[in-house]
Fold this sequence. Notes:
- It is built from 18 helices and 13 strands.
- The chain is α/β, with parallel strands linked by helices.
- Helix 1 (14-24) links the parallel strand 1 (3-9) and strand 2 (32-37).
Amino acid sequence: MRYAVVIPTLGRPCLADCLAALARSRGPGPEEIVVVDDRPGYGPPLDVPGRAVRTGGRGPAAARNAGWRETSAPWVVFLDDDVQVTGTWREDLRQDLTNASPEIGGVQGRITVPLPADRRPTDWERGTAGLAEAWWITADMAYRRDALIETGGFDERFPRAFREDADLALRTVDAGWSLTRGRRRTVHPVRVASRWASLRSQAGNADDALMRAIHGPGWYTRAGAAPGRRGRHLAITAAGALAAGLALAGRPRAAALAGAGALAGIAEFAVARIAPGPRTRDEILTMAATSALIPPFATGHWLRGTLAARRARSWPGPAKAVLFDRDGTLVHDVPYNGDPGKVTAMPGAVEAVRLARTAGLRTGVVSNQSGIARGLVTEDQVDQVNERVEELLGPFGTWQVCPHAGGCGCRKPAPGLVVQAAKALGVRPEECVLIGDVGSDAAAARAAGARSVLVPTPGTRAEELLGARVAASLTDAVRFALGQRR
């Protein structure tokens, strides 16, 4: 079972422990290890096994995307740099991936968070322990490469290691895949954090606002996430602001009443955090101070995120180019056709191509024409048929035709035609959507790193639609490329 491991890092010392544990584990090793150095600036290179890729501080979502796009294995396992896999992890991973049925797009590992045995955990330690029950976290999460390609990978608008994993999981399910939990286990130690770490973590409220804008108000339930105390934080902040406003307006009794409400909310919050902890002097002081500051911090980040996300689209947004298969997609399939007179447009083809061009998408055609190699049609005849297609549908930015009968790198399902078309159009393959009618179209797109949509015809086999994104019409397929439909 071929797999690659991708580890984003800021160069913390725990990276060495993560890599050492991976090397010690028993079982089949990864085909590739890619460590993504996301430190801002350009310091000395990291001394790591495998390959190191630099992203310059763009955040963990962008770092993971850069990492998996450097790999070629059918499975990509994401690990955080502060985890340590267990001794049988690689063997257990092999079982997880082998047991994954074709519709499963991701398999999560089981996370263990060791807590102190001689005392109660602190608030920070309890928060980290919650990772053991979290869904689809990238501390240890394996995704099919095909699922990553079809979803566009991680949404790079999430700048922190928070919610970007839940967003990808929801988009993977929306694309028709299933997610499951495997048997392998990974240890996530609690890292040392400052007493103000809980304040900094409130920036995640902005990420929650982005999740709501993308996935709707029910995203918490779908992602297995708890909504937390945001409603109470909003109430405490509003009461505090009201008390200040009333005091400035010369209404001291009303201000005192509002202030008492805010203080009561803060006290309840502090007690809820202090009671289950070790109750040391330092912990009590930290909880008291941060409990007063967290509500306005959380509210401010939520409001900021809500404003920023009010027009957010699902990642990765519109493509830059759309590539069409020719026979069975743009025009009716006439086997080995060399007669322009037999060319007729498929239903909706004129409208779909017009929509793509009007929206500013670059357009191209990628077509297998093995009849040339078989001597059933000449290159000139194929060119004449292609000219007729353009008479019906308008000019395309590029035509990429494979004249071979097999054994080449361009014939779909190989990626060659897609890669060549993207280059000719001046875009990257991942910025393209290929629209076709058979499984080899989707396979060629995925092999090149492009997304795909199939519009089935009576000649499309049912098994070719397994794991593929399917549209009812060419127009709907183009709308997907434009980011107008999930």
